[in-house]
Design goal:
- With 141 residues, the protein is mainly beta.
- It has a single domain, classed as Porin (Beta Barrel).
- It contains one helix and nine strands; from the N terminus they run H-E-E-E-E-E-E-E-E-E.
- The protein has an eight-stranded antiparallel barrel.
- The protein is elongated, with a radius of gyration of 16 Å.
Length: 141
């Protein structure tokens, strides 16, 4: 009985994952996508790097490198990331912060689907702040 109730630990030290998300930007209305890589230092802490492209209302490219924390390491994995971010936009270059979080369902040890939300407050430059909500799919190895 206890064995039937035991959950399987799926996030392990040394894990890598690569996710692709499609995102909706509510204001100004638009959309975008993010490709994110993460490496687990242990079952909870990790490093992450992301590249994003948004069209809201004008095109902007964003790149970030930061830290990631997984609040759980079983089938349902809530997570949050904090990263400094470089922004290339028609308004010029900018420096921002990326605050991202989500919930992934790891159906198997090798793939996941999930929800993601991000806030990108601009620290330096004339690029407007950006918020987004999206769906993501990921591969784990």
């Amino acid at each position: 009985m206890i064995a039937a109730l035991a959950a399987t630990i799926l996030a392990l030290p040394g894990d890598h994952n690569l996710t692709l998300s499609g995102e909706w930007v509510p204001s100004p209305t638009g959309g975008g996508m993010t490709l994110r890589w993460a490496w687990a230092i242990d079952a909870y802490f990790g490093l992450t790097a992301a590249g994003s492209w948004y069209l809201a209302p004008q095109a902007s490219g964003r790149g970030s490198v930061g830290v990631l924390y997984r609040f759980d390491d079983y089938e349902w994995v809530p997570w949050a990331a904090l990263s400094p971010e470089a922004v290339g936009d028609a308004a010029g270059p900018a420096f921002a912060l990326e605050l991202t979080g989500g919930l992934d369902w790891r159906a198997t040890p090798t793939w996941s689907v999930g929800l993601v939300g991000s806030w990108h407050p601009t620290l330096v430059g004339d690029v407007p702040d950006l918020s987004s909500l999206g769906l993501r799919v990921g591969a784990w190895w």
